[in-house]
């Protein structure tokens, strides 16, 4: 390999209220992976997770890279991997999905054996366990993903994101592991709650495609996961309510939390402050970011790019 390979992968928000495990959106916040040939494999992490993430072959980026090489029955060469992370860990913004996609794409470029995009997605889902973050991280935009009725694999449908809007994400200063967030969910739900969420997902997709922003608040209402995860995210109800009072068009828990995402057309700073104050009222520090929606998904560049 000549020169440096740079891969940039966007953050993602999954579920988007009622779309539990089937909807995800890519956001304009990125992790960057720089890859060069080396005499020995060396892994470096800077930014988010620098003190916590392993700089060994246990690193998720490298594990994903290895999985790709396994799939093509090959062995990776010695590599210098530098991860520049801006996506916070275990906050509901797809940090593990970004790591998996970066590792798979690195192997995809380095190996010279290009697997089809569907296979890349299948490997990503295998490593992550569910498709709602890895699909938009790889593809960009708004992605619907659902398991095929027979056999392995998923159906994916990529739609344009709501470009007229922005996302305000309020990120509390604590982590929620996806595994813990799944343990609080019930094994069964009522018929009425299922019907409620089916209607809200249909309304949400309709609101996005027809730009009916007045319907977003109702469309983001969920009964399948948010009510059960409130115990893991102190201040959640207040953050959702205060975001709307400050002018957000709608708000929801991002993925399994604890981040809250609000959709706005204006007053992004005010909505962010309102959510920060809501968490502060529960004695939790939080900060907010205003982000656009990413269209292109993960990118590979032969050379350096700015980590915006």
Explain what you see.
This protein has 308 residues and is of the alpha+beta class. It folds into 2 domains: 5-159 and 294-302, 2-Layer Sandwich (Ribosomal Protein S5, domain 2), CATH 3.30.230; 166-291, GHMP kinase, C-terminal domain (Alpha-Beta Plaits, 2-Layer Sandwich), CATH 3.30.70. It has helices at 60-71, 95-111, 117-128, 134-139, 178-183, 191-210, 216-219, 226-229, 236-245, 268-280, and strands at residues 5-14, 23-37, 42-47, 79-85, 142-147, 154-159, 166-172, 250-253, 260-264, 286-291, 299-302. Strands 1, 2, 3, 4, 5, 6 and 11 form a 7-stranded mixed sheet that branches. The chain has a 4-stranded antiparallel sheet with strand order 8-9-7-10. A hairpin with a 6-residue loop joins strand 5 (142-147) and strand 6 (154-159). Helix 1 packs across helix 2 (95-111) and helix 9 packs antiparallel against helix 10 (268-280). The protein is globular, with a radius of gyration of 19 Å.
What ranges have pLDDT less than 50 throughout 5 or more consecutive residues?
304-308
CATH class of the largest domain equals: Alpha Beta
Oligomer: single chain
The string of secondary-structure elements, in order, is: EEEHEHHHEEEHHHHHEEHEE
Per CATH, the architecture of the largest domain is: 2-Layer Sandwich
Give the total of domains.
Answer: 2
Beta-strand segment tally: 11
DSSP helical segment count: 10
Distance between the termini: 26 Å
Radius of gyration: 19 Å
CATH overall fold name of the largest domain: Ribosomal Protein S5, domain 2
Biggest sheet features: 7 strands, mixed
Class computed from helices, strands and strand pairing: alpha+beta
Proportion of strand residues: 15-25%
The gross shape turns out to be globular
- Would you tell me the overall average pLDDT? 94
Overall helicity: 25-40%
């Amino acid at each position: 390999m000549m020169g440096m390979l740079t891969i940039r992968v966007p953050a993602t928000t999954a579920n988007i209220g009622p779309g539990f495990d089937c909807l995800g959106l890519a956001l304009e916040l990125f992790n960057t992976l720089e890859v060069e040939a080396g005499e020995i494999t060396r892994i470096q992490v800077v930014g988010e997770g620098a003190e916590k993430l392993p700089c060994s072959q246990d690193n998720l980026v490298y594990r994903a890279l290895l999985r790709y090489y396994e799939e093509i029955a090959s062995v990776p060469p010695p590599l210098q991997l530098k991860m520049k992370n801006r996506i916070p860990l275990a906050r509901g913004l797809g940090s593990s999905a970004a790591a998996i996609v970066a590792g798979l794409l690195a192997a995809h470029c380095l190996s010279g054996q290009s697997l089809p995009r569907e296979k890349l997605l299948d490997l990503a889902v295998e490593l992550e366990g569910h498709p709602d973050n890895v699909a938009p991280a790889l593809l960009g935009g708004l992605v619907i993903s659902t398991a095929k009725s027979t056999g392995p694999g998923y159906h994916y449908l990529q739609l344009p994101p709501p470009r007229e809007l922005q996302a305000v994400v309020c990120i509390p200063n604590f982590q929620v592991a996806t595994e813990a967030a799944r343990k609080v969910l019930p094994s069964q739900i009522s018929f009425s709650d299922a019907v409620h969420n089916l209607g809200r997902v249909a309304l949400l997709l309709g609101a996005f495609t027809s730009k009916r922003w007045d319907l977003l608040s109702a469309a983001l209402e969920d009964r399948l996961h948010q009510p059960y995860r409130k115990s893991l995210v102190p201040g959640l109800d207040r953050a959702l309510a205060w975001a709307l009072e400050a002018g957000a068009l709608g708000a929801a828990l991002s993925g399994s939390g604890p981040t809250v995402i609000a959709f706005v057309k204006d007053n992004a700073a005010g909505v962010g402050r309102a959510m920060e104050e809501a968490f502060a009222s529960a004695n939790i520090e939080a900060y907010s970011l205003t982000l656009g929606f990413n269209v292109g998904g993960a990118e590979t560049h032969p050379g350096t790019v700015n980590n915006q």
